[in-house]
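Supplementary material to the annual report.
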Amino acid sequence: MQGLMMNYPLTLDRILAHANRMYPHKRISTKMPDGSIHRYTYADLYKRVQRLANVLKNLGVKEGDRVGTFAWNTYQHVEMYFGIPALGAVCHTLNIRLFPEQLAYVVNHAEDKVVFIDATLLPLYERVADKIKTVEHYVLINAPKGIETKLPNVLHYEDLMAEASDEFEWLTLDENAAMGMCYTSGTTGNPKGALYSHRSMFLHTIGENQANALGLTESDRVLMVVPQFHAMAWGLPYACAFSGAEMFMPGPHLKPEPLAEIIASEKITVAAGVPTIWLGLYHELRKNPRDISSVRAMIVGGSAMPRSLIEEYEKNLHVSVLHAWGMTETSPLGTVSKLHAHHQDLTDAEKWDIKAKQGYAVPLVEIRIVNDEGEELPWDGTTMGEVQVRGPWVIRDYYKLEGASEQFTADGWFRTGDVATISEDGFMQITDRTKDLIKSGGEWISSVELENTLMAHPAVKEAAVIAIPDEKWAERPLAAVVLTDDADGVTAEALREFLAPKVAKFWLPDKIVFIDDIPKTSVGKFDKKVLRRRYADGELG
Ligand code: ADP
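Predicted assembly:
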């Protein structure tokens, strides 16, 4: 029909071209393994991505091939985020903290053809080397010349880059072609692959950059603590490039002390990571105060951010926390909890209650809660149901996996396995993952709410609640608690008394046990599988 707009494919090269044209001098900085800071600009990135695309072409990588990355957050890893898709290949970010069997499973299942490996991570990868079937080349990043390795066909990143041209003829790709893939971290069973397309990631980038979502701008300096293998660093490298925000990549320096140092010295405005990272940082900042007032948003997701920690950041450190929810299967951004205009007159305490929720759906993501029969439930803030989502960056089916159809509804929604309430004004609050809910005598107890309430006690550093079998009630809650260093003589009884006025009586944990550390998954979540096993083995009292 005449008069129509252009057919303009939504491919990621346009994001990079935009950054190069509009923000050529904006910087991407990386804290290298030796502690030095590497800096370059979007203009440099643009050139290097073209080189990388030529490198891959020279290695025989073709459209649709999977190329793995086993790397920290670094500028080279950002080059891969753009360079691999530039060729129509798929950037498959490998989780460096997977167990060896899972890592081998994922590389073989994806049939990666080339894998890029950070030299510091080589020993981790070598453990699985002899189980890998499809990889034709390994490319080492930041490796000293003459490094010894038992990997076959090893090449060096900078050698290949130096030999390749920095002019690449950009391809015209189908916007529906795959550009990236991540496997879930396997919190629940074997990792499952989600494949992102140029179009889905492009729209995710636009969605993420909405003012009602994360809203990055050209004046932001973004610290990406969330690993690039964790749901594509939540899409932030693309969101930064499209908005001209500067990126700061911490490399392997993920301990609280270097992170505090980076935030203060680089005047970071937006920092993104999981709650355990911000918990560690908070304790570091209380011990060694630093000026972090440049931070306008501390983005947190991956697990529920305890309300008490939100309060501590906002009240004591004057840093605004932005709680978000998502999944590998949702690219990942699903919801964010920014206050709405009608919240402005609330007290601080009421505002923190809202910020502790996972929030409202960002544009183009639809959410609903349903009961066991699949009937939609009301948004009244109290009715709990399973969260289902759909949208252009929500998974349609898993990569090469039969038998997962129960995760998708007949009418095209993805079943998240999370349970939540949604308030009248659309704020979702996750009460649990279905498998973590405690089913006590036909009633549900939210492990997340119990954990949050316990973590509000000043002597409690971390708390994880699991279901334990019970003859009378089927399941009852057990709380595993880590106390702060200066907690003195706090007893299980004292914690139960603290909880009593705050939760229903039948919610009170039958057992509260003190442990040194809560086991964590490869992406820093409480590993309740391990806790349940420890309990079954009689290790948790
Ligand atoms: P995995 O499924 O392997 O743990 P993901 O990072 O994709 O890896 O996990 C997504 C899940 O993480 C969600 O289904 C939800 O249970 C949890 N999650 C993510 N963000 C939040 C949040 N802000 N609050 C509570 N839970 C969250």
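The radius of gyration is 23 Å.
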